[in-house]
Amino acid sequence: MTFAFDLILCLMILGTAAIALFVRDALAAIAFFIAFGNLMGLAWLGLDAVNVALAEIAIGAGVTGVLLILARARLLALGDAATSTGSPLLLRLGALAACAGFVVLLAAAVLSIPPESGLDRVVAPLMPGLGIENRVTGVLLAFRAYDTLLESFVLLGALVAVWSLAPAGAWPGRPADPGMADAPMRRVAGTFGQLLLPVALVMAAYLVWAGSDLPGGAFQAGTVLAGGLLVAGMGGTIGLPSSDQPLLRAALVLGPVVFLAIGLAGVAAGGLLVYPAGLAKALIVTIEYTLFLSIGVTLALLVAGPPMPGASDPDPEGKG
Amino acid sequence: MDLPLPVLLSTGHLYAVTGAALVGLGLYAFITLRHPLRQLLAVNVVGAGIFLILGGLGRGPDATDPFPQALVITGIVVAVALTAFGAAMIVRQAQTRAAAKPAADDNENPAP
Amino acid sequence: MSWIDLAVLALLGAGLAFYAAGSLGFLRFPDTASRLHALTKADNLGLGLVALAAAIYGGSLAVAAKIALVWLFAVIAAGTTSQLLARRARLDEARLDDADSAPDGGLR
Questions:
Q1: How many residue pairs from chains A and C have C-beta atoms closer than 8 A?
Q2: What is the pLDDT of residue A311?
Q3: Are the beta carbons of A60 and B75 closer than 8 angstroms?
Q4: pLDDT average, residue stretch A232-255
Q5: C-alpha B112: how far from its chain's center?
Q6: CB neighbours of residue C83 within 10 Å
Q7: Chain C hits for A185, Cβ within 8 Å
Q8: Which of A91, B46, C4, C47 can bridge B26 by disulfide, Cβ–Cβ 3.0-4.6 Å?
């Protein structure tokens, strides 16, 4: 892409970020934040990082956007409009000076480092040994698999933290219904959810499979699954699961546990998270498929929030 | 179709400097904004800026370093987990405050 | 410049024109219903033309089929959200009417 395009894109990113941060109305702020996330995705395309672009648009703009809109709606129901209020002039001036100075320092530091893709040359000759072609997937699940393993547990820990915010007496229970209160709206959303959920499953499975050689992978696929589950939940197609359902708990821990088990089994082949020669691709794909399921369910439940009193749904069919 | 614009920065530096500016913008907003939900948005902007610095500095002349890419994907997922926890905490705090108000109806579930 | 390049440019240009018109209408029209009307033009025709250009530019049937699927689900999603937005706007209007009928007879 040309320099002019990159420059305009960078200015638009800064502009949407500034509006998202400083506009008075909370819903407008979130709308601009979603636009900001999508432009960030374009920036990652400009950097030739398609894997990151997918993750940024799906998670950074999509899931975070839904999360914030839902939080804003719940605050609004409590009489809190989350409008931005001004702070004292002295504080603003001080913060402005400090942050401007910090940006200058940071920019100078950044400019003193020449951009280079040195590790790409290190990774490239190692890829045939894994049997996959997507180098980012290679880094995530082989060369730095330790980080990804820990991260899958971080995500689980975040859900436990969110669940621990459940009010007394609400545990074990369902999250507050994110669905539409108005019956015709619920029917429209429900039809869309019925259509979308199976498509999201197929698409997510494809994204994991494609992620071995092309851009894609477990995180992007998990987000697609989470999106399908959330739309289906909003339209009442599936009921939100109670937090103590055994099947749900199994789906949450399946990915991290399988990852950990394969990692530990690697000790027999030479060390933690070492894949035996020839089996690397099979093991990576196994980890990714279980991980994507867990990530999808975890993300959907993170957005739905902690169990709430009175959120009991007679429909016990939803398994998450 | 290159526009006759002088190329002042390499692509990688351009995005990395944009990331630095985003970090400053987000920090300023975090300090001056009062509502916790808006501060959560500011934290997300700071995070996006840091990701852009990582990605921009990994942008070589013919390829982008896969290590920062993988780090950023990990970071994006951790950021959404943090945002979810923050949002849940903000909503919970507002619920507790609403329940503690004396004017509110007394049959509300008392918060711990 | 081959015929294919020309077709891609023409389709892209027409699609962007619809997007521009739709965005302009979205910004300038007075109420939710007419803003939705403007947006559907951008969503349906603009996206369709741009997707068609991309499919031709892609040059293979597999790519074209994938883009067609993207277009299909974007259109379904747009239709669904338009329904929801319109319904919400009607509900809000009804609520405003109720509120106004009490003091001085519905002057909004």
A1: 22
A2: 56
A3: no
A4: 90
A5: 31
A6: 18
A7: 83-84, 87-88
A8: B46
Alpha-carbon distance of A264 to A272, in angstroms, equals: 6
Per-residue pLDDT in tens (0 to 9) along chain C, 108 residues: 688 889 999 999 999 999 998 889 888 888 888 888 888 877 788 899 999 999 999 888 999 999 999 899 989 988 898 888 889 888 888 887 776 554 443 333
Put simply, whether A153 touches B (Cβ < 8 Å) is no
Answer whether residue A65 shows pLDDT above 80. yes
The pTM of the full predicted model, rounded to 2 decimals, is: 0.90
Residue indicated by tokens 């987990």: B81
Task: For residue A306, count other CB atoms closer than 10 A to its CB.
Answer: 23
- Contact of B99 with B111, CB cutoff 8 Å: yes
In this prediction the ipTM stands at: 0.91
- CB contact at 8 A, A129 and A277: yes
Give the gap in angstroms from C-alpha A189 to the nearest C-alpha of chain C. Answer: 7
Task: Compute the nearest-CA separation of A167 from chain B (Å).
Answer: 6
What residue segments make up the domains of chain B, in order of their start?
Answer: 11-100
Q: What is the dihedral of CA A247, A249, A254, A255, to 10 degrees?
A: 130
Name the residue range of residue A155's domain.
133-320
Going by C-beta distance under 8 Å and a sequence separation of 6 or more, which residues neighbour residue A204? A221, A222, A224, A225, A228, A292, A296
CATH 1.10.287 fits B11-100, yes or no: yes
Residue A131 CB partners (closer than 8 Å, separation 6+): A280, A281
Q: Are A47 and A81 in contact (CB under 8 A)?
A: no
Tokens of A220: 């992007």
Question: Is residue B98 left, alpha or beta, with left meaning phi > 0 and alpha meaning psi from -120 to 50?
Answer: alpha
